UniProtKB/TrEMBL annotation:
This is Ferric uptake regulation protein. It comes from Spiribacter salinus M19-40. Keywords: Cytoplasm, DNA-binding, Iron, Metal-binding, Repressor, Transcription, Transcription regulation, Zinc. It is found in: Cytoplasm. SUPFAM superfamilies: Winged helix' DNA-binding domain (SSF46785). Pfam families: FUR. InterPro entries: FUR, WH-like_DNA-bd_sf, WH_DNA-bd_sf. GO terms for molecular function: DNA-binding transcription factor activity; transcription cis-regulatory region binding; zinc ion binding.
Length: 143
């Protein structure tokens, strides 16, 4: 009983988030939002989310998953991290921070913003100012 109530409350919260972001709360978007934001902060890929959606019995295409992730990103609900041209991660933590990327497993882990200090940044081009620095520290199991 309690779980049901908290699910409903969570649903209302997600609905409100979507509406505030200017996105209609369609059943597909709500279902995906539930998967994305219902498990605490995490980093996911379009492929991984699609697999989760199938497992949950959501009926949607890979394209829908992909488009929804990009809509959420444009709306500021997710942050996109380009690990390399073939691997894009979506982060539920949109505050500034850095990452460890495990090259063996593909797992991504947060590094707090203050955990990295970058000194000697180059002078930005004329008329530009530095907006932010995103660091990905690539790790591998040590031999
Ligand atoms: Zn992160």
């Amino acid at each position: 009983m309690n779980a049901q109530t908290s699910t409903q409350r969570h649903d209302a919260f997600l609905r409100e988030q979507l509406q505030r972001a200017g996105l209609r709360a369609t059943r597909q978007r709500l279902g995906l939002a539930e998967l994305i934001f219902g498990q605490g902060e995490r980093h996911l890929t379009a492929e991984g989310l699609y697999a989760e959606a199938l497992k949950e019995g959501l009926r949607l295409s890979q394209t829908t998953v992909y488009n929804t992730l990009h809509q959420f990103t444009e709306a500021g609900l997710l942050r996109e991290i380009l690990a390399d041209p073939r691997r894009i991660y979506f982060d539920t933590n949109v505050d500034p921070h850095h990452h460890f990327l495990d090259e063996d497993t593909g797992d991504m882990e947060d590094i707090p913003a203050e955990g990295v200090s970058v000194s000697a940044l180059p002078t930005p081009p004329d008329g530009k100012s530095i907006e932010g620095v995103d660091v990905i520290v690539r790790v591998r199991r040590s031999a």
